[in-house]
Amino acid sequence: MLLYTSLTFGFYYIQSRRELISIEGLRVDGRRPTELRKLVSRVGVLADADGSSYIELGNTKILAAIYGPREPRKKTSMLHDRAFLNVEINVSPFSTSERQKRTKTDKRLIELAQSVKQTFEPIVLTQLSSRSQIDIYLQVLQNDGGVLQACINASTLALIHAGVPMSDYVCATSAGFFENTAVLDINQIEESSSQSPEVTVAISPLNGKVILLQIESKLHIEHFKGVVELAIQGCHQVKDLLDKTIRLNTLKLSEQRNSHN
After folding, report:
1. CA–CA dist 206, 202 (Å, integer)
2. Has residue 182 got a pLDDT over 90?
3. How far is the C-alpha of 38 from the C-alpha of 60, rounded, in Å?
């Protein structure tokens, strides 16, 4: 018997291993196996940042802020042929039921930040801003699984809002395999289950290139292709949602400009 308690969200789950997918084909949060959690996104949420965004992926909530390109804070960070990409992730103490304060030196946060950085380095046109620095600051306000994926998607929106040149969107999601079923967009309960391997995929939708591929725990080779393909399908769904947010914001700015003329 797996007992999962969430003080943050104010409810309790008592979930047996057999009930990750019910006999009706529904997961613990009521979704079908190939269904994304509800994604809510906004841009321009921070007035003092060059670009910012806010994303809710189910109950996971991420705030992103972009500063730069600007002069590097440290001379050792200066690159003569391109901009230095700096990523920092902070987790609010109230984001999970653990109420655990995490510092910038936390190993897991450093790993997450490095994954975000490596994902955007091939996409951000850093060669256009040599000898400068672009800072991506991410704040995890609430964690219900899929933090890395949400951080990547929030960074995409914030970078676009900041006007940082990129060759394409970067869209990420996760997939797993349990109860003999490939499932899309793993939540916290599913992440915590010992029977649920998790694959994180980030793609460049324009050419379909996989930029990031991470696997948490073991996944049988027979199921690997199907799980990755499902994650890629999810990334394209995410891209459509992010693109809608950008287009709505652009339309809003256009209407504001016209009203002032």
Report:
1. 12
2. yes
3. 10
